[in-house]
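New to this. Look over this protein:
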Amino acid sequence: MAITRLGPNQDITAAKIAGTINFKNILINGDMSIAQRGTSTASITSDGYYTIDRFIASMTTAGTWTQSQDTDVPSGQGFATSLKMDCTTANGSLSVDSILLLRQKIEGQNLQYLKKGTSNAESLTLSFWVKSNKTGTYVAGIYDNDNTRQISKSYTIDSASTWEKKTITFAGDTTGTLDNDNAASFYIDFFLSAGTNFTSGTLATSWESFTSANIAVGQVNLADDTANNFWITGVQLEADTSASDFEFLPYDVNLQRCQRYYEILQATDTYDTILATWNRNTSDMGATLNYKVIKRAEPSFSFSSGNTFRMNTATGDHTASSISSSNPTIYTAQINIIASGTPLTAGQAGYINMENGNGDAIIRMDAEL
């Protein structure tokens, strides 16, 4: 039975943007359209969010990779972008704990309607478009982080370098209710390589207690050749026993859903004014930053170097020597900026500029699962 629902941070108004939108896709950014961190990252050898929002690459001793937002997409399906993994250093002899996968983590409060852990638990259907030069068996799975349970299903890439649509249905799990909170309850995993620690058992095609040897049995080693590439797009997970057409969201709605977990402010012009401020004393300027979207949790902050920011007041224009954050909430944070050179006038109002061309000023807010 298909479930009509609203996604995180969405209301009835947002749901009416298009007549057919009901936020049926449990996953966010399945069309790979949002890439706030950038469109390409090279020399990847460890876990991280690199390009496409909400999709983390998880890996251990499985070669070296470039991840990118690519324009290679299935023809005539409405997609403009895909997530591409390109092997740049091969590992043809995986160690027992080698692993390479793409993952999205999902908050428990967004999964309560699945009725997991009850006799009415909903089945889930995962559909996606995939392409690789390496044919063979691949594995996709769900990990229940709250109850340490798992289910995996295999699929086959039949034709080399050809877009193919895949559909996988997972039975509902009548064991283990999910926490109703903003922490990660489900991991949705797309395996690309796996060592024997993850392949030496029997594939867990029914829900079971987690056993690492059963999660990726039969998985090909995509890391065995630098000629290997993997593309994926149109990823949708829905409460049903069959797949429906991919639900395209307006770009701004998709972006806002991603910004719940990660938001970036970056200079796009010579000077971009971002914050009204006040001078606490002759060297320290303060401001309150209101996020574009309420965050999942109090975010951590990172900044480009202080000299990419400028402090402007009635008595002068000052280059910053440092910038930091304090007192973050899910709504706002305090931004603290220290002047370099000419002293400020205590109590005076001003504003902060982000500079483009002097290291490109960037503020990152991270509330990822």
Summary: The chain has two domains: 12-259, 262-366. The two ends are 29 Å apart (CA to CA).
